[in-house]
């Protein structure tokens, strides 16, 4: 604490309760008496403050997190680095429960809610990766899920950047803070990470990149759907061995009704070779959305009738040349077989007559009466090979492709995916949205719709501007979360008043509804405690000033 009599950390934060504790720090719910509202106050364990370099390593987490701007990543508010005080960092408060708590108390999430949580996590990680960082500790305990009154997922936050680092570094415990939990006196450098989620390369001590985070997201998706990590084993050593060598599990074996496409997303994320996984968080998110969208995706061909067998040809005959003597003898010596072939030719001719258009579209009733047409007897028995005339039936069906899901990707990424699918991109439209400028928000035709190749797809992308939401009348915590989710920075100002309860938002500057650039700063005007009137001292009654009496002149 800052003094022997103050209960404020950093002369600003009043601790109200414990949120959680780990190997290196404890996280408290605290009230910001300077700006108002709740914060998450992370404090280094006192016994680690004496470890050389631990202070700098602890504070490095906040410095890394400051490089990321996203509603799903808590923002650093303040840092305390006073040698005579506790070592702490203050973060924006993210409401909700961890995914681990939800699964433990309520069981696995329904499919739509589970995939929604993972989509939000991937959105946040995409921002982390764009900042040149990898999280390296994505787990159910480090994902906060926000839900509305109906229980639907309204947001998610990725927390705890204690293991975060630039792309390509290892997680060996050579770092004084990462290695603080290892046995004292052991000289070896151990691997640091959550054994239930760590990627094979992380467990081997190899450099960890974006694919390592996506491996952990695959495990997170397995937890959300099944209720436990993908490689649960009796001993930690067995779990590590499974991460290194076991085939990824199939979710639908445990949860009937999970689509095969979603199974493929989980398995691909959990593949052992990083190069075989998704290339980016945006790509994995697009695959997840496509797997759960319902309609057939671009990779699924429409169902068509089986084509008729191809006519005999010299090439086909050469392939079967070894059997020619037997086939020729049997056909030539079997009048019954010739009769059957002749009958088949009659039926094929009738079928051709029924299927081939005759001067316009063939309605259902035409197909029903076609077999009775008297043209069938006119087909000679020797014309059996005429089955080849059925080929135009398959040629008349135009080729179609499914529109791939590209919402959430950048405009350049979406263009590349649509071009690979054989589709064109119409000039994009823009719309105000909290997401970064150029992010694809929607597309027409809808994802999964089957369209002719070359169809132009209209994309709506984020303009880079957003609108200040109306949070008047709300509490400070809820208002801050709403404004941050709109992609805006927040400042708080308290005004003494009796017109509203303390902590209630009275106004915003600029005013609510104003269109501003994403990332702009918005000041929320909060109701403060009414000013206490200072009593005015009553004036003392005036007394006449005595006039000295002149002494008589002698």
From TrEMBL:
Residues 295-316, 527-554 are annotated as: Disordered. ATP binds at residue 42. One of its GO terms (molecular function) is ATP binding. CDD domains: PASTA_pknB, STKc_PknB_like. Residues 397-463, 466-528 form the PASTA domain. Keywords: ATP-binding, Kinase, Membrane, Nucleotide-binding, Repeat, Serine/threonine-protein kinase, Transferase, Transmembrane, Transmembrane helix. It comes from the Bacteria. PROSITE patterns: PASTA, PROTEIN_KINASE_ATP, PROTEIN_KINASE_DOM, PROTEIN_KINASE_TYR. It catalyses: L-threonyl-[protein] + ATP = O-phospho-L-threonyl-[protein] + ADP + H(+); L-seryl-[protein] + ATP = O-phospho-L-seryl-[protein] + ADP + H(+). Pfam families: PASTA (PF03793), Pkinase (PF00069). Residues 13-289 form the Protein kinase domain. This is non-specific serine/threonine protein kinase.
């Amino acid at each position: 604490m800052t003094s022997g009599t103050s209960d404020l950390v950093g002369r600003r934060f009043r601790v109200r309760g414990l949120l959680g504790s780990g190997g290196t720090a404890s996280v408290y719910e605290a009230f910001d008496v300077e700006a108002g509202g709740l914060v998450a106050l992370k404090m280094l364990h006192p016994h680690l403050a004496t470890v050389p370099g631990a202070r700098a390593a602890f504070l490095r987490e906040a410095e890394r997190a400051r490089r990321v701007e996203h509603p799903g990543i808590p923002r650093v508010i303040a840092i305390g680095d006073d040698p005579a005080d506790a070592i702490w960092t203050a973060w924006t408060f993210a409401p909700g429960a961890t995914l681990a708590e939800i699964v433990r108390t309520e069981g696995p999430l329904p499919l739509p809610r589970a995939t929604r949580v993972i989509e939000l996590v991937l959105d946040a990680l995409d921002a982390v990766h764009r900042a040149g960082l990898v999280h390296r500790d994505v787990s159910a305990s480090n994902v906060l899920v926000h839900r509305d009154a109906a229980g639907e997922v309204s947001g998610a936050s990725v927390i705890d950047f204690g293991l975060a680092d630039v792309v390509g570094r290892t997680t060996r415990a050579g770092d004084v803070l990462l290695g603080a939990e290892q046995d004292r006196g052991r000289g070896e450098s151990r691997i640091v990470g959550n054994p239930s989620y760590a990627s094979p390369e992380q467990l081997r001590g190899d450099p960890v990149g974006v694919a390592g985070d996506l491996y952990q997201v695959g495990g997170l998706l397995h937890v959300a759907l099944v209720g436990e990590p993908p490689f649960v084993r009796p001993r930690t050593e067995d779990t590590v061995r499974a991460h290194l060598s076991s085939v990824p599990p199939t979710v639908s074996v445990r949860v009937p009704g999970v689509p095969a496409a979603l199974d493929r997303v989980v398995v691909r994320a959990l593949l052992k070779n990083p190069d075989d996984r998704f290339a980016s968080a945006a790509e994995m998110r697009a695959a997840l959305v496509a797997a759960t969208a319902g309609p057939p995706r671009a990779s699924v061909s429409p169902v068509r009738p089986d084509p008729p067998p191809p006519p005999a040809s010299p090439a086909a005959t050469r392939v079967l040349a070894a059997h020619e003597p037997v086939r020729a003898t049997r056909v030539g010596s079997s009048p019954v077989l010739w009769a059957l072939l002749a009958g088949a030719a009659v039926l094929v001719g009738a079928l051709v007559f029924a299927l081939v258009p005759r001067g316009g579209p063939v309605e259902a009733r035409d197909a029903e009466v076609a077999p009775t047409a008297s043209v069938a007897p006119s087909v000679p028995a020797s014309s059996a090979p005429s089955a080849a005339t059925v080929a135009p039936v398959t040629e008349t069906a135009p080729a179609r492709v499914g529109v791939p899901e590209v919402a959430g990707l950048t405009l350049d990424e979406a263009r590349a995916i649509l071009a690979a699918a054989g589709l064109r991109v119409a000039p994009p439209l823009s719309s105000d949205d909290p997401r970064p400028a150029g992010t694809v928000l929607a597309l027409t035709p809808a994802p999964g719709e089957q369209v002719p190749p070359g169809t132009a797809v209209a994309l709506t992308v984020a303009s880079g501007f957003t609108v200040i939401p109306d949070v008047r009348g709300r509490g400070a915590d809820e208002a801050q979360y709403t404004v941050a989710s709109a992609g805006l920075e927040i400042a708080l100002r308290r005004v003494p008043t009796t017109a509203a309860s303390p902590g209630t938002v009275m106004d915003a500057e600029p005013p609510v509804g104003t269109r501003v650039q994403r990332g702009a700063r918005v000041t929320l005007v909060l109701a403060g405690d009414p000013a206490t009137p200072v009593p005015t001292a009553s004036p003392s009654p005036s007394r006449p000033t005595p006039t000295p009496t002149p002494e008589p002149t002698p």
